[in-house]
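Re: that chain you flagged

S.,

Sorry for the slow reply, it's been a week of failed gels. I finally had a moment to sit down with the sequence you sent. For the record, here it is as I used it:
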Amino acid sequence: MTFKASVLTLYPEMFPGPLGLSLAGRALEAGTWSLEAVQIRDFAEDRHHTVDDTPAGGGAGMVMRADVLAKAIDHTAPEGDPRPKLLMSPRGKPLTQARVRELAPGPGAVIVCGRFEGVDQRLIEARNLEEVSIGDFILSGGEPAALVLLDAVVRLLPGVMGNAVSGEEESFENGLLEHPHYTRPQEFEGRPIPDVLTSGNHKKIAAWRRAESEKLTRDRRPDLLAAQPLAK
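Prediction finished late last night. Pasting the structure tokens below so you have them in one place:
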């Protein structure tokens, strides 16, 4: 089954962008996944192709119209389309590796890229959009966030990564940040590779990596440690 991504945007020329390169690009060429960028303005009915209007109640900026977005969504994902509908939004639930792993085996995703001050709340409710955030910061639009989400999902599709095991040992896969990595040369500017990594003792190496992961997580993301059984 091919993972089908449909991105609703005011800037379809931003896609595939970096998704056309490296692992994601090769998988796109191979048909492992597909991507369509839908121009939202095509569904506006006035001669200026207006997609936004002033916010009800006053205030700065503009809001994306519910009627135009509804037509774009309904055309892209008609009734019966099983794909989840996502809205990239700074107020959404944080995107996690667990959510990425839920999306990867599915049929794909319909991704709405917001612009201006946001999207009419009635559209979010009427089309059951799942709001997703990639971090506690504001972007000029949802397109960069959509690229991030799709990159995270596509690399998990069957055959995309050369070594599937590598995806199981990364940050967040076990609730911890990933341990440090080393490779040749044996010494770099007076800094040697830790002896345990060249000992050949796989049990000690695994214990060292777990301990280093916990140390990094404790220092940088202590919020992740709450549900983790600590290494002895």
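What I noticed first: The radius of gyration is 22 Å.

Talk soon,
D.
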